[in-house]
Design brief:
This protein has a five-stranded mixed beta sheet with strand order 1-2-5-3-4. A hairpin with a 4-residue loop joins strand 1 and strand 2. It starts with a helix and ends in an 11-residue tail after the last strand. Helix 4 (about 60-70) packs antiparallel against helix 5. Helices cover about 35% and strands about 15% of the residues. The chain is an alpha+beta fold. The protein contains six helices and five strands; from the N terminus they run H-H-H-H-H-E-E-H-E-E-E.
Length: about 190
């Protein structure tokens, strides 16, 4: 976004990222630096979608969604409630759970409006966040059967493959996470 371009030095400093890394397409930042950068962008833009969606997600939206889904009995209910929550709060995207019989299920990410930033970055961020959140809910790591992205692998060669377990496929029709259907029956843990 324009805000990010005008103030990138501020964001890089907040995240303790050397500005020289911007000149190296193979550069990688730490998870802590990435988290600091995202947090700084969200606070500065007052937008939990980092300024990438046409309509911002107010600060606190994610926290309210978490408060909603924590009361679910099992993972399937939590994922469906998450999708319903975002369907009510934004028209920009949808998370939809689909069952593919007894053995598989998918979580699809569908954008209803064009993004104002890179599709790959925003999709990967949502998928990484969703996998961590849903793993936390059932108190065990979720290993997807496969992840599909509806965009090509980046020219720099960067790939999401190394960031998560499971196979990653690019240039697919829809971005989705494929899960074993049995995971949907896992109880949500509340200690």
């Amino acid at each position: 976004t324009d805000h990010g371009v005008k103030h990138h030095a501020f964001f890089l400093e907040k995240a303790q990222i050397d500005p020289e890394l911007l000149n190296n397409p193979a550069a990688i930042v730490s998870i802590k630096q990435y988290q600091c950068l995202i947090r700084a962008v969200m606070v500065a833009t007052r937008d939990e979608s980092f300024g990438f969606t046409p309509n911002r997600l107010k600060l606190g939206t994610f926290a309210m969604m978490c408060q909603t889904i924590i009361h679910s009995d099992h993972l399937e209910q939590a994922i469906r409630m998450c999708g319903q929550f975002y369907h009510v709060t934004t028209e920009d995207f949808r998370l939809r759970l689909r069952r593919g019989g007894e053995t598989a299920a998918t979580i699809e990410l569908i954008f209803n409006r064009p993004l104002t930033g890179p599709l790959s970055f925003y999709t990967e961020a949502i998928f990484a966040l969703a996998l961590r959140l849903f793993s936390w809910l059932i108190d065990k790591p979720i290993v997807p059967l496969r992840i599909d992205f509806n965009f090509p692998i980046e020219e720099s060669g960067y790939s999401f493959d190394s960031k998560i377990p499971g196979r990653v496929w690019y240039s697919q029709r829809v971005s989705r996470i494929h899960l074993p259907a049995a995971l949907l029956l896992e109880d949500v843990k509340r200690d």
